[in-house]
Amino acid sequence: MGFSCLSAHRKSFRPLCWRSYYCSMPRWARSGGGTGSARADAPTNCLPLCREAEGAMGGDGLVSDLRIDPDGLTPPGKQLLPGFVHYPGVLSPELQQALLDVAVSVTSRARDEGVSGGWHRKDDNGRWSLNDGTKARFWDRIDGIFPKGFRELGQDLARLSARDFPRDLAAPVAAFEPQVGAVNYYTGRGRMGWHADDYNFAKKDRPIVMANLGDAAEFGYRAPVAAAATGAERSVRLESGDVVVFGGEARDLVHAVLRVYEGTTPTNLRGGPGGPGPLVGRVSVTWRDCGPEDGLTFNSDERLGLTVTENTLPRYLAKRRGGGGGGGGGRARSAACWGCGGAVESSGRAGQGYCQACWDSWRR
């Protein structure tokens, strides 16, 4: 299965109506567990609620409120580095919920059918776990996977940054056509190590747009590799509803998720890997302009071994052979350096991806 093809087990997207959130949750989540049985107090007919909410939906039944008007917003955006912009609280609570609904839907379809996929790995003993230890990663093409309005929201946010900081971002944003949606989930212990996004995961001359939902996170950043003279590390706290954009000079920004602040999710946000209750943890939603022409010919299911293909990383094949869905067991595993492509040994620590030579050169 390639990135350009839909997995056979994928359902066509059924968009989520926030007023009738329960009826649109996956079957496993409705019960709060993995049995697929509905709760005793569940509504038996959600259709009236869905019809009542059609005013917030498009006539074709697709989510139509996944949009902002960049020209009508005057948020206090701050440029942290040339080309790296932070917009605190730019997403309204309603838009945060709608975006979270989308994230839960696209990452839970496989579990709804009882197989590994999306955020979820089914171990040999039948137990479920996140697909990458204390976090879960997901990416796939937007067309056919994400609802109408999702791509446009990413473009709206990018245009907001170009409007406010045209010297650094107008040109990169003008060509921005996101093809891939990436949705990551972090538990309170979830981290992402220092890295710069490769050009097969976002074109060199296009921005990357990321929204933060749920728990606040400490987002570390360093000047792009080519411009890093001192290697000073800085960080910004991202709250739920915050958005960051990095492009232009900051396209190769070295960044990391250093900490998740547990228990800081807004009380009104509901949904996540654990079911339809209050969100516990952090969700990041990222829009990326890349595709097969850049070498991205696979999705996260393939790369993480949830569906084994020639694109599966060797370290995830062990999980398919009974290695479990945890953090890697402490064994050294060979992988390719994200910088030079050479061999690098990983002990399973989240974020390991660079050889020592690349790491040292970036810290100088």
Automatic annotation (TrEMBL):
Q: Which cofactor does it need?
A: Fe(2+)
Top-level taxon of the source organism: Eukaryota
- Database matches in Pfam families: 2OG-FeII_Oxy_2
* InterPro entries registered for this protein in UniProt: Alkb, AlkB-like, AlkB-like_sf, Oxoglu/Fe-dep_dioxygenase_dom
What range(s) does the Fe2OG dioxygenase domain occupy? 176-291
Q: Which PROSITE patterns match?
A: FE2OG_OXY
The UniProt keyword set, sorted, is: Dioxygenase, Iron, Metal-binding, Oxidoreductase
Protein name according to UniProt? Fe2OG dioxygenase domain-containing protein
State the organism of origin.
Answer: Prorocentrum cordatum
